[in-house]
Specification:
Chain lengths: ~90, ~600
């Protein structure tokens, strides 16, 4: 593997991570804690639950699962593009 | 058939399944003992990790916390799931690529030092011990309920079972057993929730019930509004409002999340899958399986609060449901008839001029000895009397342990007996699976990292496994002691301390180790030591040495201090590394290499 590919790979994968971590922070600390009071009043209710409360108890957890799914898919694509994909028999 | 008999049948059946699996896949070599030979599929590993992850704290304590504190309980919900994002995105793929069997292995090699490895072993021991203490407490609560005995006796029985059980299989046995345990846990947690959601809200799915309408009265009221009203009527804060400061809430959630990403027994799980891509997939599965339980917990908490208040508040003791006496007998619920009217009253802090709602003086209920005269033990209405003096500053008469809510839930909702039996089996599975996983990591740290790599390098495979089993025994004995005398009255909090310790020691050290080529051994060792010392010091000072609430740093409770410990770790590590020499070239090359995902090979046990 030439070092050029690996630098690009490293940079892109870092970008994917930063974006996902930004979402991670926003849904949990942002919606669930820091801006909860404001969101409870101003954001649309989820069913009958205030938005911030719902994010803290349900929404953030659902988002975490989606973030991990996105991460697995995006990284698998990136691996393939740069030829790092392993065949199923690799590593035995 | 009585409830007890049914409980034992369910528990017996599930145990038979676990033990059959464990024996059939008994570890033959050290490699199988530690990492199951690296041949576990992402799906199975995800399920097993979820079972490992969901401990007594999750299963027994968390919904109870939500029931008591409403919004404030979210700190556990977010903290114990959000950490998986950090773990997956920042840590495990690299650690897997590095290909070592344990966390101290990585730290020892990355920081090219026996000392770093030694410090890591000590941190791992502290983290796992604190964690197991919480589990032993959980086992104790379940067994005490099951046999109608006190919690200390429950803890001892539980410890004996965990020891036999954990010694059997090694990682391979544990992985497949945990798959079975996850299934038991998931069913036993969601089935009662579905039943209760149907009776209270007419909704089959508990999560929809939570945000839907309350229908049990005939007229439709939003469920959360109903709950808020119940709470404020009795002098409690609204369910959807929090009482914790934002800073404290933030720090606790952060300590739990970063702690998750530094927990050795979770990281180790991902060494059992075959390559980096499978690690990412496995983490998805893990979190999805965990989410099933975590999304149900808030619903259970809210429902059980409504049920508890409707069943007990203003109910005369003689008419109280039968289960109230069962919980009184095990010391999990208590009633002090302050106004002498023979009725149970449950009130919150807003009903008292000095904003308290304590039922009696002292932390936990204490009872007269069994051979004391009857009038000291049994009150006018047949209730169990306490030694504690009544706290007359407020009208609240009902005391119950947070940890009992989940177990009391099906009783309160009059669910069929088999549901209760299933729940008991689930509780035991939760505590057992985590305790077994933790014991494995703890004993590995001692036998593999401490004995083999630091003290006695010529250890044979057989001796190593022997040391591992010996270490498990000692660890369990210590954990049982602290299960009987816990650092905090409720499980989730004790376990939260373990996360604080992990956040302040392993998370920063692993993260910098992966992403920075410049970090050297001096920085890492100084960082780990300062982070964990600060955190342990703060917890011990405020939990054991009688530190006052007013002295909290920025109002942060000991649960959340791990986050500050983590920041200290980062700062100290970078500062020290600035003034000490760079790591050798081969270590820097190694860091470069682990950023490429391919060629992970099998986890190396050497």
């Amino acid at each position: 593997m030439d070092s050029d590919t690996s630098t690009i790979y490293h940079r892109v994968s870092l970008q994917i991570r930063l974006v996902l971590l930004f979402i991670w922070f926003t849904v949990s600390y942002g919606c669930g804690i820091l801006f909860r009071d404001w969101l409870d009043v101003h954001a649309p209710r989820i069913g009958e639950a205030p938005f911030g409360f719902w994010m803290a108890q349900q929404g953030s957890i659902i988002s975490f699962v989606l973030i991990l799914i996105a991460y697995a898919i995006l990284m698998a694509r990136l691996d393939e593009k740069h030829g790092y994909r392993e065949k199923s028999e690799a590593g035995k | 058939m009585s409830q007890d008999v049914l409980n034992f049948i369910f528990i017996g059946l599930t145990f038979a399944v676990y033990i059959t699996i464990a024996v059939r896949s008994r570890a033959a070599s050290t490699k199988e003992y530690y990492v199951a030979g690296g041949h576990v599929s992402a799906f199975a590993n995800g399920m097993a990790t979820a079972a490992d992850w969901m401990s007594a704290a999750t299963f027994i304590s968390m919904a109870g916390t939500v029931a008591i504190s409403g919004y404030d309980g979210s700190r556990f919900l977010m903290g114990w799931t959000g950490g998986f994002v950090l773990l997956t995105v920042l840590m495990v793929p690299y650690l897997r690529k590095f290909g070592k069997a344990t966390v101290p292995d990585f730290i020892g090699d990355r920081y090219y030092s026996k000392w770093a490895r030694g410090v890591a072993v000590i941190c791992a021991i502290f983290i796992c011990m604190t964690y197991i203490m919480g589990q032993m407490r959980g086992v104790g609560v379940v067994f005490s309920q099951l046999f109608g005995i006190s919690i200390p006796s429950g803890v001892l029985i539980g410890a004996a079972i965990v020891f036999v059980y954990a010694g059997l299989g090694g990682m391979k046995g544990i992985t497949y057993t945990q798959v079975a345990q996850y299934c038991v846990m998931a069913f036993s947690y969601t089935i009662p929730a579905i039943y209760i959601a149907m009776t209270l809200t007419g909704n089959v799915i508990p999560q929809f019930g939570l945000i839907g309408n309350y229908t049990a009265d005939g007229e439709l009221v939003p469920f959360l509004t109903k709950l808020n009203n119940i709470n404020t009527d009795l002098g409690f804060r609204e369910f959807t409002a929090g009482s914790m400061s934002k800073t404290n809430m933030f720090c606790i959630t952060a300590a739990l999340m970063f702690g998750t990403a530094g927990l050795p027994h979770v990281i180790v799980r991902f060494f059992t899958v075959k390559n980096v891509a499978a690690v990412r997939k496995s983490a998805c599965w893990t979190l999805a399986f965990i989410a099933v339980i975590y999304l149900t917990a808030p619903a259970i908490g809210a429902f059980s609060r409504v049920n508890l208040i409707q069943k007990l508040h203003n109910c005369s003791y003689e008419d109280a449901p039968y289960w109230f006496q069962d919980f009184e007998a095990t010391g999990q619920m208590a009633w002090v008839d302050k106004n002498g009217d023979g009725k149970i009253q449950y009130f919150g802090p807003d009903r008292s001029p000095i904003k308290t709602s304590s039922v009696f003086l002292g932390k936990a209920p204490e009872y007269p000895a069994y051979d004391a005269p009857e009038r000291q033990r049994i009150g006018e209405y047949g209730q169990r009397l306490l030694i504690n003096k009544a706290d007359d500053s407020n009208p609240n008469e009902l005391w119950f342990g947070n940890d009992i809510m989940v177990m009391a839930n099906p009783y309160m909702a009059n669910l069929p007996m088999w549901v209760i039996a299933l729940l008991m089996a689930g509780c035991i599975a939760a505590a057992l699976s985590t305790a077994a996983g933790l014991l494995l990591v703890l004993s590995t740290s001692i036998s593999h990292d401490l004995m083999k790599h630091i003290i006695k390098p010529d250890l044979s495979d057989k001796e190593e496994v022997g040391y591992a089993r010996g270490a498990s025994f000692v660890a369990l004995a210590v954990a049982a002691y602290f299960g009987i005398n816990p650092p905090s009255a409720f499980i989730a909090k004790t376990v939260a301390f373990a996360f604080g310790l992990a956040a302040s020691s392993f998370f920063p050290t692993l993260l910098i180790g992966i992403f920075s080529k410049r970090m050297n051994r001096e920085g890492a060792i100084a960082g780990m030591l300062s982070g964990i010392t600060f955190t342990i010091g703060y917890i011990v000072y405020f939990q054991f040495l009688g530190g006052k609430k007013e002295d909290y740093f920025l109002g942060i409770t000991p649960e959340g201090i791990g986050f500050i410990g983590m920041l200290i770790n980062f700062i100290v590590a970078f500062a020290v590394s600035k003034f000490t020499p760079d790591p050798p070239q081969d270590v820097q090359d190694m860091v470069e290499r682990i950023h490429i995902p391919s060629g992970a090979g099998e986890a190396d046990v050497h």
